[in-house]
């Protein structure tokens, strides 16, 4: 079985759990004998890709002849969701294409365009343009490669997956790692919502990372439940050197929040719970590791609560830095408002760190040795943190059995379930 897979990021160049999950699943699929062509908008050359082919979309040349482009144009009309989402190929070329929808008038074998698109692979102001360009490249890749099905990860790649499906006629599986309702609550971006909905409607099968996400897909997007399957994420075995002797340089216990400092991750609830803990015990330090649009608001709130000497901001941490942070932590807290899954608690438990997680997370469906609280219940969150810090037996129990639990959550098992979903459309 050969799979054409579209992602937006790949380790070590990641901004969150999406790239980590793609890497783990791909390695798991390869171990099961599945061939994978993994496409990213921009590859840097230092990615680990043993056993599968990593394709850099920035290296792909678009060279559609008239007859080929006519077929492509007819099948790419789904992209006309909004004016800023129509495939972007440069202003002059775009105007030419819009004026030439009846492409049979073009002289046969005349090249419509031939060029490379250079992707940033980032999440900046030109994101929608890159998503659309990526779909163009996907159609070219699909026409030049042999594969059995298409697998597209998250909304950024759904248009690419649909384009590849329309060109090749192969079945499309989309992987929902998060929805716009997770990221933005009820204030959804309508353009992103439309892309997600179109991807779900066009997909032959949908994989969600939790039952929580599955219900959102069914209820919020109106998708047929029979084509939506849940496959929980896993965690990579730790290949880092032993960090048990890492020095904290502080005598106090350390409680850590690690993730994007955005609405979805619930950083404000972490701050309020920290304030309650510090009222009972000043010998604790809290760390917020990450960056995001709420960071300045968190800094102001810490200042207002006069917790500056007990609260630290690290900024974004990469792989080795994350491991070091966990090695220095006594408790890890994930207070997410809506978390489709949440790999970071697994990484913390792998490092023998007890965790407190919100009940509104997909990972709570698979973990037994974790304290689960409602994200909004800052009293319960503060009590859980205080209890782990002050009752040694509790801390040892969660650390020991938690590690044993996550060691059994392997990507090969997730990959096996993915293959079973593949088989339903092949």
Task: Describe this structure in a few short sentences.
With 426 residues, the protein is α/β, with parallel strands linked by helices. It has helices at 17-31, 66-75, 91-99, 127-144, 158-168, 180-184, 190-202, 211-221, 267-280, 295-304, 319-327, 344-350, 378-390, 392-407, 411-423, and strands at 2-6, 35-40, 53-56, 61-65, 111-116, 149-153, 172-176, 205-208, 228-230, 253-258, 284-289, 311-315, 331-334, 355-358, 371-373. It is built from 15 helices and 15 strands.
Question: What do you see in this structure?
Answer:
The structure is a single chain. By secondary structure, the protein is α/β, with parallel strands linked by helices. The chain folds into 2 domains: 2-234 and 414-423, Glycogen Phosphorylase B (Rossmann fold, 3-Layer(aba) Sandwich); 253-407, Rossmann fold (3-Layer(aba) Sandwich), CATH 3.40.50. It is built from 15 helices and 15 strands. The strands form 3 sheets. A 7-stranded parallel β-sheet has the order 3-2-1-6-7-8-9, with helices on both faces. It has a 6-stranded parallel β-sheet with strand order 12-11-10-13-14-15, with helices on both faces. Strands 4-5 form a two-stranded antiparallel ribbon. Strand 6, helix 5 and strand 7 form a beta-alpha-beta unit. Helix 4 runs parallel beside helix 5 (158-168) and helix 9 (267-280) crosses helix 13. The longest helix is centred in the first third of the chain and has 18 residues, at 127-144. The protein is globular and about 65 Å long.
């Amino acid at each position: 079985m050969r799979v054409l897979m579209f992602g937006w990021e790949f380790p070590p160049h990641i901004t969150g759990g999406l790239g980590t999950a793609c890497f783990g699943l791909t390695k798991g699929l390869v171990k099961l004998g599945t061939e994978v062509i993994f496409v990213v908008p921009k590859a840097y050359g230092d990615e680990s890709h043993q056993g599968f082919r990593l394709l850099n979309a920035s290296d792909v040349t678009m060279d559609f002849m008239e007859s080929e482009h006519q077929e492509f144009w007819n099948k790419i009309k789904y992209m006309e969701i909004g004016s800023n989402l129509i495939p972007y190929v440069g202003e002059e070329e775009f105007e030419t294409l819009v004026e030439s929808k009846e492409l049979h008038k073009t002289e046969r074998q005349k090249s419509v365009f031939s060029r490379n698109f250079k992707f940033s692979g980032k999440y900046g102001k030109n994101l929608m343009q890159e998503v659309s360009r990526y779909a163009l490249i996907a159609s070219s890749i699909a026409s030049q490669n042999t594969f059995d099905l298409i697998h597209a990860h998250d909304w950024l790649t759904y248009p690419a997956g649909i384009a590849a499906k329309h060109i090749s006629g192969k079945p499309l599986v989309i992987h929902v790692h998060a929805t716009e309702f997770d990221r933005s609550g009820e204030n959804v971006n309508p353009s992103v919502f439309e892309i997600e909905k179109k991807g779900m409607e066009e997909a032959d099968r949908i994989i969600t990372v939790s039952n929580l996400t599955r219900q959102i897909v069914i209820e919020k997007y109106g998708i047929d439940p029979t084509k939506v399957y849940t496959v929980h994420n896993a965690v990579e075995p730790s290949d880092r050197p032993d960090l048990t002797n890492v020095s904290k340089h502080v005598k106090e216990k350390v409680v850590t929040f690690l993730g994007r400092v955005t609405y979805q991750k619930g950083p404000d609830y972490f701050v309020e719970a920290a304030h309650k803990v510090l009222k009972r015990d000043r010998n604790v330090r809290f760390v917020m590791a990450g960056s995001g649009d709420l960071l300045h608001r968190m800094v102001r709130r810490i200042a207002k609560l006069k917790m500056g000497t007990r609260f630290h901001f690290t900024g974004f941490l990469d792989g080795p830095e994350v491991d070091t942070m966990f090695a220095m932590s006594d408790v890890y807290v994930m207070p997410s408002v809506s978390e489709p899954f949440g790999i970071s608690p697994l990484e913390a438990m792998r490092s023998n760190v007890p965790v407190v997680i919100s009940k509104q997370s997909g990972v709570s469906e698979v973990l037994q040795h974790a304290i689960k609280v409602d994200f909004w219940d800052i009293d319960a969150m503060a009590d859980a943190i205080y209890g782990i810090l002050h009752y040694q037996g509790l801390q040892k129990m969660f650390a020991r059995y938690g590690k044993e639990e996550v060691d059994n959550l392997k990507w090969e098992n997730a990959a096996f379930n993915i293959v079973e979903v593949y088989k339903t459309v092949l």
